[in-house]
Amino acid sequence: MVKKLKIVTILILCAVLLFFSNNVLAAEFVNKCTEEEAEVIFSAMADKTDLKPGDTFTVTVSIDTNPANGLGLASADYRLVYDETQLTMVSLENGPVATDKRWSMGGPADELALANEFENARQIVWYGVNGGSGAFEITGTIFTATFRVNDDFEGDLTFYTHDNGCSAGGVEFDELGRPTTAAVKFYLKSNFDELKVGEEEKYTLGDVNQDGDINIRDVRMALEASLGKVQLTEEQKLAADVNKDGDINIRDVRLILEYSLNKITEF
Ligand SMILES: [Ca+2]
Ligand SMILES: [Ca+2]
Fold this sequence. Notes:
Elements: H1 2-22, E1 40-46, E2 50-51, E3 56-65, E4 75-83, E5 87-94, H2 96-99, E6 104-112, E7 121-129, E8 140-149, E9 155-156, E10 159-160, E11 166-173, E12 179-183, E13 186-190, E14 196-197, H3 216-226, H4 234-240, H5 250-260
Parallel strand pairs: 1-13, 2-14
Antiparallel strand pairs: 1-3, 3-8, 4-7, 4-10, 4-11, 5-8, 6-7, 9-14, 11-12
This protein binds calcium ion (2 copies).
One calcium ion binds at residues 241, 243, 245, 247-249, 251-252.
């Protein structure tokens, strides 16, 4: 009976361990030190943050700074979680860090992620290890991933590196002079919290009557609107307010006139 209980307990423990090791919950990465205190700096930067449905953008993930002791990194990993209901991955390219043959490397690979807050989560997983002996300074791009914003998506993009999905190990020597993996303070720089997908613009600045051309008709329409003689639709108002100060007045009329006379080429 006691033996049976022990086996059951061990089985339950195994099940719990398995559950937690597989079921990685997506969460925003929280830096545990400041950039100034960091010995290792990672960056994960999107090349654009103001996006429209259908736009593509590229995220570059890199190791920017190694520990100051000059012994390099013994290990590093980075995991990026995205939501397939928001984005489709177009390409995933290895950078020089990921192709460096001196490291034993995993990925980068695009995999399903069991993250419960996304409808359809995927993750790009990358890790590199070299143990400690033979560690070396390594900086540069790990990978670049290009994404396309889904046509039906609008709002804030959720793009996560979860807490245990970014780490770095340094090197130090024990009392016998053997290299061992040491904890290092690392910092992740990212502009992911600025990623936004706005509505597709359905107007062209200056083309008040929305006929595809900017000419004297638009000047007249903006003038009449500024005098309250004509009511514009919301999109026409946005098109007429060429200096984007929230008001349609003589300044906008003049700018549209100058544009229509080719005296200016943009608003
Ligand atoms: Ca027009
Ligand atoms: Ca204006």
